[in-house]
Amino acid sequence: MNQEQLTTLLRTLLQFGGGIAVGRGWIDADTATALTGALVTLIVTVWGLYVRRNAGLVASAAAVPAVKAILADPVTANAIPSAKVQPAE
What we know:
The chain is mostly helical. The protein has 4 helices and 2 strands, in the order αααβαβ.
């Protein structure tokens, strides 16, 4: 699954939960809509920050078939389980 698919799934699950909460009278429809939007935004932002950390970017680059080798600092290189990623000396 890619990020767009995960975002769509998350939004759908939150809308489903919000529909149940509205149906039971726990919250009103406007509150459910606002909460869904806020939670999706927050979760997507946190996910984006996580995948764009140094190790995440290097791992993504190592997954590209055209990339033959990557030199990275030793800590990052050791955190990536790929033969393409080598520690810079």
